[in-house]
Write a structure and sequence with these properties.
The protein is an alpha/beta fold. It has a domain of 138 residues: P-loop containing nucleotide triphosphate hydrolases (Rossmann fold), CATH 3.40.50. The protein is 33% helix and 21% strand. It has a 9-stranded mixed beta sheet with strand order 4-1-2-9-8-3-7-6-5, with helices on both faces. Strand 6, helix 7 and strand 7 form a beta-alpha-beta unit. Helix 5 packs across helix 6 and helix 6 runs parallel beside helix 7. The chain is globular. The relative contact order is 0.19. About 7% of the residues have low confidence. Bound molecules: adenosine-5'-diphosphate.
Amino acid sequence: MIELNVAIKNKYYANSDQAVLAQLDFTVKPGEFVALIGPSGCGKSTLLNMISGLENCSGQHISYNENAYNERALQEEGESNKALHQLGYIFQQPRLMPWLTVRENIELILQPNQFHKIDDLLAQVGLANEGEYFPSQLSGGMQRRVSIARAFAINPQLLLLDEPFNSLDAPTAARLRQLLIDLCEQRGTTVVFVTHDLQEAVYLADRIIFMSDSPSTIVHQSIVDLPRPRKESGVSELAWQAKLLSKYPGLLAGQID
Ligand code: ADP
């Protein structure tokens, strides 16, 4: 299992003289599921892009605790694939290659000696019979399931998700949240999950980090001390949210006062 350490100070984009992120310091413990909530435009995607290395982070501190790396997975898959195992990223859109089948989309990120895993993965996301379909032949929810299978195909130690269930119908989103929990629990994945939905965060996360408007800082952190399995609209879950928001009414807008 892997630990993530983030210490960001004054992240600028080249075309702006105002920082997107002012200061963010946090650690995600091995196997912990952290949700990030903040107002639109506060820099949540920027932060995930920095953690993943898609966005420049020179001068910033973002590191994984490699010592916590899962040795068993390494032995099973071979030392040469170490880099591939560390990070999975599920974007807002499934980002499948439209000219490749479901199976080929997953093959794309694997070594040939790992292709044998694909049938099992597709079965786990409920797509055992759709491997030869093209993305255009699938519903939005099925495409998301392919993107989840693809992310888990590399057995990520750290998984980043950027509002992955937006714009899905409620039952499909609920099924995919449960699938995500099951896969992460099975594998001990360390997770950073961006959402604007407090109910979703309470259902999924061990801890919620609330960000301010840009230039953003962390305004509050809450441990979600509710037993699992949880319910999306369970009495305890709704009471937990209500208590938090009655104490900090501006929290979802990034304000603590
Ligand atoms: P969020 O995910 O919280 O909605 P983003 O990280 O997408 O926020 O964006 C934060 C701010 O950074 C926005 O003002 C956005 O316009 C700006 N931004 C994002 N990506 C870039 C980029 N590649 N170049 C310049 N500005 C960017």
